[in-house]
């Protein structure tokens, strides 16, 4: 494909947002970065608040005991994450082919947002595990479609040399969303509003992003029809042909397993090990997330700036993994609540370094400029899959560890530390990015 000059690319974008696929933008449009940051904040608020806090207590209210709730939480989050795994790359690929007059990405962003909020409301009013499961599957599918379409706009809108900065700004939205979700849950007693309120906030930011986005448009439909083979191809790539993309996927998977997958059972860890009440555990999680967010607020923007400055991505990922390992080990053996909070702060410091360069690194190893959303969706499987595998295998590992001197949940956190360390090592298998 013929590459346009920066001036021609800017002219092609114009006021209509029409842009030739594969061209590099000359500069970031005004309003784009805050728009992308806020939509990511909203989606993570809506998805991570249930994963990290409210879903555990919602299921416990239905199940009646921590022991039964642990297995049911694993079922709901595990199956729901599979829907996220499927929806992210599929919606991304379909958005690459969308010829709507509203743009390629906008219909997926606003449509997914509306369905996702409705699904969260369904979970809030549910009185059975099966209704919770259905609602969570719908929410994961819809909101991950939003995430895939929104983040696929980054290569369309931001020059390569500025992506570390934008990625760092977007990266800080994850801990801010976790903190905001913990704050909301701390002051909301109703199960309905614990799910619906974060969803409404997400929808507001989705609408804002849709308004400010100068979306790319396809003038005509792709010549090749969307086939069954392409459908299954939405979830795979050829690691032999694109090894850097494959190693990036594995690195992301391992580090996200250590970060997001492990965190799901913190409410049960606090109530069992430290004998906290539900409100006591929620308050402790709020304080821990505040400490984590402060450290992320330092490491994420700083990491993105330094990464652009020195022109390197891999060292920041490796350092992130090692720091997270330290935090997870401390969490596993924490004797008191203050030590739990310190451990969460250390994990946040490492996670901030990772999120600061994660998206920037990913956009530099994409296999095809014409399948940006599809490829980012495949990479985002590494975000969703840990949230599926972790709850599925956690009950077994926790039960196995319960018969040891260190205890079940400590064994689980040590397992996460080993997985995160693997991610820190594997990043240096990526050769095409420094």
Automatic annotation (TrEMBL):
Keyword Transmembrane helix (UniProt): yes
Ranges for domain Major facilitator superfamily (MFS) profile: 35-434
Domain of life: Bacteria
Transmembrane segments: 36-57, 69-87, 108-127, 133-154, 166-189, 195-213, 249-270, 282-304, 316-334, 340-363, 384-406, 412-430
Entries under Pfam families matching the protein: MFS_1
Localization of this protein: Cell membrane
Membrane topology type: Multi-pass membrane protein
PANTHER family, per database record: MAJOR FACILITATOR SUPERFAMILY (MFS) PROFILE DOMAIN-CONTAINING PROTEIN (PTHR23528:SF1), PTHR23528
Annotated protein name in UniProt: MFS transporter
Species of the source: Microbacterium horticulturae
Highest classification ranks of the organism: Bacteria, Bacillati, Actinomycetota, Actinomycetes, Micrococcales
């Amino acid at each position: 494909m013929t590459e346009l000059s920066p001036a021609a690319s800017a002219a092609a974008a114009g006021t209509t947002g029409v842009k030739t696929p594969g061209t590099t933008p000359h500069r970031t449009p005004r309003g784009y970065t805050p728009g992308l940051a806020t939509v990511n904040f909203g989606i993570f608020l809506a998805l991570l608040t249930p994963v990290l806090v409210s879903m555990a207590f919602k299921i416990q209210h239905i199940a009646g005991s921590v022991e039964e709730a642990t297995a049911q939480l694993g079922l709901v989050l595990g199956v729901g994450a599979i829907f996220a795994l499927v929806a992210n790359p599929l919606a991304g690929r379909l958005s690459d082919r969308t010829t709507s007059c509203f743009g390629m990405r906008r219909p997926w962003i606003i449509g997914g947002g509306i369905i996702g909020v409705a699904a969260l409301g369904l979970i809030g009013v549910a009185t059975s595990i099966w209704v919770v499961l259905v609602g969570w599957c719908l929410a994961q599918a819809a909101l991950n479609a939003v995430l895939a379409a929104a983040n696929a706009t980054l290569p369309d809108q931001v020059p390569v040399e500025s992506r570390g900065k934008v990625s760092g700004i977007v990266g800080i939205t994850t801990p801010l969303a976790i903190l905001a979700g913990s704050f909301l849950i701390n002051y909301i007693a109703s199960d309905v509003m614990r799910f619906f309120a974060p969803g409404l906030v997400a929808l507001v930011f989705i609408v804002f992003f849709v308004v400010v986005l100068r979306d790319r448009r396809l003038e005509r439909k792709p010549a090749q029809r969307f086939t069954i083979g392409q459908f299954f191809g939405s979830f795979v790539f050829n690691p032999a042909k694109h090894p850097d993309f494959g190693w990036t996927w594995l690195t992301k998977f391992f580090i996200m397993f250590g970060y997001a997958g492990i965190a799901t059972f913190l409410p049960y860890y606090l109530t069992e090990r430290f004998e906290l009440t539900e409100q006591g555990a929620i308050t402790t999680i709020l304080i821990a997330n505040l400490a984590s967010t402060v450290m992320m607020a330092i490491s994420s923007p700083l990491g993105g700036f330094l990464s652009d400055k020195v022109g390197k991505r891999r060292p920041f990922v490796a350092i992130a993994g090692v720091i997270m390992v330290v935090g997870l080990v401390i969490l596993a053996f924490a004797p008191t609540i203050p030590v739990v909070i310190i451990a969460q702060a250390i994990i946040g410091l490492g996670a901030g370094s990772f999120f600061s360069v994660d998206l920037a690194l990913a956009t530099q190893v994409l296999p095809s400029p014409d399948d940006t959303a599809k490829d980012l969706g495949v990479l985002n499987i590494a975000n969703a899959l840990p949230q599926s595998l972790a709850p599925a295998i956690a009950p077994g590992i926790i039960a196995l560890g319960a018969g040891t001197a260190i205890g079940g949940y400590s064994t689980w956190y040590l397992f996460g530390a080993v997985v995160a360390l693997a991610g820190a090592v594997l990043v240096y298998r990526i050769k095409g990015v420094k």
